[in-house]
Amino acid sequence: MPVQVELRYDTKDPYAVVAAFRTGRAGWVEWVYARDLLADGLIADAGDGDVRIRPAADDPEVVVIELSSPSGHAMFEASAQELADFLDRTYDVVVPGNEHLWVDVDEALTHLISTDLT
Fold it and tell me: What Gene3D superfamilies does the database record attribute to this sequence (predicted)?
C-alpha cells in the first residue's frame, strides 16, 4: 500500500536525515537516522538496529527500508534513484566528511546540560 513519506535534511544536524511518514489523520511519524546509513543501504545491507536499509534482492531499482520499534515493525520499498537524488542534494549542502564543520559543540553541550537540569 502506498505511504506518503517526506525526506528532510537540515544542517543543524548534518549527520542525520529525517523520514516523516504520513499516518493518516493522526499526523506524521518521524524517524531520524544517519545519512551514511541511507547511503550505505543503497549499495548493500546496512544497519543493525531499529533502521535497516538494503537493495531489494529481486530489483536493483528498489531499496527496502525496515523500521522496528516497541510498537511494531514496518517494511517499505522506495525508488533507489529517488533516494540517491535526495542524497546528492544533501551532499550539495554539506559535503560528506565535512559534517563536523556544521556542528556547534558548545551549543550542543549547553542544550544537553540545560535539558538535564530540568
Answer: Sporulation-specific cell division protein SsgB
pTM value > 0.70: yes
Asked if residues 30 and 20 have their Cβ atoms less than 8 Å apart, the reply is yes
CB atoms within 10 A of CB 40: 15
Question: Residue 62: is it exposed, middle or buried by C-beta count within 10 angstroms (0-12/13-18/19+)?
Answer: middle
- pLDDT in single tens digits along all 118 residues of the chain: 778 899 999 998 999 999 998 877 778 889 999 999 999 999 999 999 899 999 999 998 999 999 998 888 999 999 999 999 999 999 999 988 888 888 777 776 777 787 555 4
Give SS3 for 81: helix
